Amino acid sequence: MTDAGETTQIKAYPMPRPQPMHPPREYAELRQQCPVARHLLPSGRPVWLVTSHEGVRTVLADPRISSDRTHPGFPLPYEVADPEVLKKLFRFSQSLIGLDPPDHTARRRLLISEFTARRMQALRPRIEEIVHGRIDEMLAKGSGADLVQELALPVPSLALSELLGVPYQDREFFESRTKIQINHNSGLDERARANGELMSYLDGLVAAKEQEPGDDLVSRLIEKNREQGQLEHGELVALVALLLIAGYETTANMIGLGTIGLLDNPGQLAVLMADPGTAPQVVDELLRYFSISDTAGSRVALTDVEICGTRVPAGEGVLALGLAGNWDPAVFAEPERIDVRRDARRHLAFGHGPHQCIGQNMAKMELEVTFTTLFRRVPSLRLAVPSAQLRYKDDANTYGVYELPVEW
Ligand code: HEM
């Protein structure tokens, strides 16, 4: 067993990308030298970066490694001194994604039946309508649009409204508030205010459905909770908020990046166009290639643990880097190539272990419908500026583009 942190000089994390579509160079270097290496976050907290596919899976499945955001050793990128502010910030995550078993297991059980393949099949025709509707509107405006505004943001927002039973007319409110809440560039006060507004809206929504249930996730969640008496009203509201936050910007960013990936690789797009039945495979490869939630595997070691031969002391942060794992050439040959014919199903873009993305069936379905419909209906679609000149979200939790100017 090695002690990589003690023998090497501590370097800073995050590192810049050499080009927008590629991970930082250090990921590959670290993977070769030692896939588990101690770094320092801007907050000054230490974090152990894990860069191999095997290492990422090991960390995410280890019950001695916690997801609890409120643990003093959790690898927060920024320092928050006020415990009250911290509590508010993590209200949503501590409703599920920041819990450890057994609390996490019971909470997840309440939701899991809402995201089965069968439920998603039932939702699919509605998602198809949503995508067609947005493309109709985009085309009606003439050639030239920002695909982020016209398609990538509205599709998951409307899909979530549909799933949860959020009225259509409230979607703008959702978009704006969730945007602020997830944006690490927003000030802490601004984010706290957005949290508050979102919570009070959802409070009202949950209360309305308690009185008058509909055929939607929130109503069924209320019913299940009545039977089991697990959650207080506020916790139920926070759980619904988490679904919105977790399912919104992630899917939007994948729509934007996936479109760029296909337009920049016409040979790969041709495979999808020749046979729309390849869509699930295409989507898996795009999810692997972009791995937009690179830092979702943030954890803290509860005891001393050994990861791939390196000792990580109790109380220190661990970052199981999804992008590094998904570009591990031991698992995906020539990872820097988008190859929609490869079997990418072992990718870690949705995480691994107990917290593996609960909404993955929904996300995949939205992406499949969006890409097949978009390229079928707008076969002349092209980028209005080269992809290297776009503004990428280097500063955000989830990677993506801020704008995507297209023409047809
Ligand atoms: C968890 C990625 C879409 C809801 C996760 C995790 C990842 C992820 C990496 C694991 C986090 C961890 O290990 O701590 C993505 C990506 C998406 C996407 C890349 C889109 C392309 C969605 C959607 C929903 C959703 C559409 C719901 C509508 C959740 C929830 C969790 C989660 C609730 C926490 C699960 C738990 O803690 O048990 N997601 N996600 N996600 N995701 Fe997603």
Automatic annotation (TrEMBL):
Cited Pfam families: p450 (PF00067)
Molecular function via GO: heme binding; iron ion binding; monooxygenase activity; oxidoreductase activity, acting on paired donors, with incorporation or reduction of molecular oxygen
CDD domains, sorted: CYP105-like (cd11030)
Pathway: Antibiotic biosynthesis; vancomycin biosynthesis
InterPro entries: Cyt_P450, Cyt_P450_B, Cyt_P450_CS, Cyt_P450_sf
Keywords: Heme, Iron, Metal-binding, Monooxygenase, Oxidoreductase
PROSITE patterns per record: CYTOCHROME_P450
Gene3D superfamilies named among the record's database cross-references: Cytochrome P450
Role according to the record: Involved in the coupling of aromatic side chains of the heptapeptide of vancomycin.
Family classification: Belongs to the cytochrome P450 family.
Annotated protein name in UniProt: Cytochrome P450
Source species of the chain: Amycolatopsis pithecellobii
